[in-house]
Amino acid sequence: MLSGASFSPQVLAGMTQEQIAAALSDPASPVAKAVNGTANALTAAICNVTKGSPAEVCDSAGVRAAAQRLAGG
Q1: pLDDT tens profile 15-60
Q2: Are 53 and 30 in contact (CB under 8 A)?
């Protein structure tokens, strides 16, 4: 279950849409870490329910890493 914000909205404070989009392209940026991390965690949870389907999504590195964190590993 997900309740509330999955990352601090302060990460996006003062940024334009264009700046946010550009930051998402840089995996080291705080924006990408927050947004992509959340997306990977949600995707990992969905992949758990669908038993790894679709494989091309569920087998991606970010989703696999998030699945390990969700499993406590």
Answers
A1: 999 999 999 999 999 999 999 999 999 999 999 999 999 999 999 9
A2: no
